Amino acid sequence: MKNVLICGGAGYIGSHMVKLLAEAGYDVTTFDNLSTGHREAVKWGHWFEGDLLDTLSLEAVFRKTKFDAVIHFAARSLVGESMVRPSLYYQNNVVGTFNLLEKMVEHGVPSIVFSSTAAVYGEPQATPIHESHPTLPINPYGRTKAAVETMLRDYAAAYRLRSVSLRYFNAAGADPEGSIGESHQPETHLIPNVLRSLLETERVLQIFGDDYPTPDGTCVRDYIHVSDLCDAHLLALDYLDKNEGAYSFNLGNGQGFSILEVIRGAEEIVGKPIAYTLSPRRPGDPAVLVADSQRARSELRWRPRYTDIREIIETAWQWHRNPTY
Ligand code: UDP
Q1: Which of 131, 148, 109 is nearest to 240 (CA)?
Q2: What's the CA gap between 113 and 248, in Å, rounded?
């Protein structure tokens, strides 16, 4: 049985990954500092509370188990926050990952799957975005992720550390079995905010900007179901068994939806109108982000299962009406 360390396994995507790996028969250990994650979200495998900035706790987890691979989700991930608190991002995302990579090399752990982001591209010069698009991030969040991808290429060349960086577009939805889902404090993401505005009457949804150069003026994003993202990580682990080097793959559905289209989809599912206010643009938001994920399809043999935005919103809705944390 393969031993996999999941850094950030108590977070939104990490907790879904823990579940998938456990069900696929892996021996999973979660390492998480609970700064944004939830202990209740980790229902499978071994638990280890620790921080990537604390090299002693990292050393302890690497001593305890001989891991075959690491999947690394532990990071700060909000564009807006990264603009006002960049030090938090450089410290957690760059220094924390550096500590992790050092431990991997020291303990001979050969492979890592890394959570990267569409934010590494910055303002797209062409759409859909292919991996060959220049990486010119426009905010500290994107820059920290691009910096780690650079580190991973250098570690592959010098130390033969194998890596796959998965550049997520907009992660959304929840485990269809309903036991885990998305729970951020504060919540900044569109789909949870749309759904919570339906559940909590005092919460009014804000639309950040309706003057973008898009068909209805609101931002267009490529929403990808969290379970599909997790499938790609599993495939990436297999890929790294067979391939040396450092790779990057986009993960998206290849179809963009505007904020107003998401709202309409949610209204159809819930059967209630959604009230919203128009607010100014949120700094750092590109108008359109849509993925070309052909590389993941051909190299990893990845096939997203949730290709209909309504299905994605539906799984999120099932979670939000009955969240357990
Ligand atoms: N957005 C919005 N209202 C919200 C949350 C998000 O209008 O309450 C917009 C946001 O400005 C962006 C899109 O929805 O254009 C997707 O934002 P989200 O934070 O979900 O993901 P991001 O694209 O930043 O990763």
Answers
A1: 109
A2: 10
Q: Which atom of ligand 1 is nearest to the CA of 281?
A: 11
Please tell me if the CB atom of residue 297 comes closer than 6 angstroms to any atom of ligand 1. no
Ligand 1 site, residue 193, Cβ cutoff 6 A: yes
CA of 238 to the centre of ligand 1 (A): 33
Rounded CA separation 249/295 (Å): 6
> If you search the block for the tokens 């339906």, which residue do you land on?
198
pLDDT tens-place string over residues 261-286: 999 999 999 999 999 999 999 988 89
CA distance 20 to 24: 6
Name residues whose C-beta falls within 8 Å of residue 117's C-beta, 6 or more positions apart in sequence: 77, 141, 142, 145, 167, 168
Residue the block writes with tokens 């700094």: 283
For the chain, domains (ranges, CATH) are 3-172+223-251 (3.40.50.720), 190-222+254-291+305-321 (3.90.25.10)
Distance CA 47, CA 4 (A): 12
Assess whether the C-beta atom of 188 lies below 6 angstroms from ligand 1.
yes
Longest CA span, the chain: 57
Per-residue burial over 145-171, b if 16 or more Cβ lie within 10 Å, else e, is bbbbbebbbebbeeeebbbbbbbbbbb
Q: For residue range 214-248, what is the model confidence (pLDDT) as tens digits? A: 999 999 999 999 999 999 999 999 999 999 999 99
Distance CA 225, CA 304 (A): 8
DSSP 45-86: SEEEE--TT-HHHHHHHHHH---SEEEE--S---HHHHHH-H
Say how far apart CA 195 and CA 266 lie, in whole Å.
7
Threshold 0.90, pTM exceeds: yes
